[in-house]
Design goal:
This protein is of the alpha+beta class. The chain is 16% helix and 37% strand. It has two domains: 64 residues, no CATH class; 84 residues, Alpha-Beta Plaits. The protein contains two helices and nine strands, in the order E-E-E-E-E-E-H-E-E-H-E. It is globular.
């Protein structure tokens, strides 16, 4: 495993200029991302990316292939161990999401390709409306127009 430096836009939540992600080397300067991006936009776990050496670091150049994952960032106002937040994170795991804590309040959500991304989004939206969390979409990698697209206007998931 290697670390790849991802330059960040000025409007990122961390205020940092870059984020480092673990990646598995493949061939010809290509790497598969192996953790959830917490601040970088347009990337998800398992994406195939290209990176080049610069100043002693591997630096992200571009996405070679998205691989069907979506990424959300959850900000847990009371911390990720608060009962409502812990219950939400457990619910997301049951929906085929990987949950990766960055801090006590920031959690990355990797929505696996086989997950129903519309149900995941509905659960996050319901928790946000209840005041439990704030969330942000970092990358939407699922196919649009799937069988659950009608959930956008449906009642919250329980």
């Amino acid at each position: 495993m290697v670390k790849i430096t991802i330059p960040l836009s000025d409007d990122n939540l961390s205020g940092a200029t870059s984020e480092s992600l673990w990646a598995e080397p493949k061939d010809n300067g290509r790497y598969v991302l192996r953790n959830v991006p917490f601040y970088a936009k347009g990337l998800s776990c398992d994406d195939l990316v290209e990176a080049e050496q610069s100043g002693g670091n591997l630096v992200f150049q571009r996405v070679a292939q998205h691989n069907g994952h979506s990424t959300y960032r959850v900000y847990a106002r009371q911390g990720r161990t608060a009962p409502d937040v812990a219950a939400l994170l457990e619910k997301l795991r049951g929906m085929r999401c990987d949950v990766e804590p960055a801090t006590d309040k920031l959690v990355g959500i990797d929505v696996l390709p086989e997950a129903d991304v519309y149900r995941v989004y509905a659960a996050l939206s319901e928790a946000e409306q209840a005041g439990t969390i704030d969330f942000q979409e970092g990358h939407y990698g699922h196919q649009l127009g799937g069988p659950r697209e009608e959930l956008r206007d449906s009642p919250p998931v329980s």
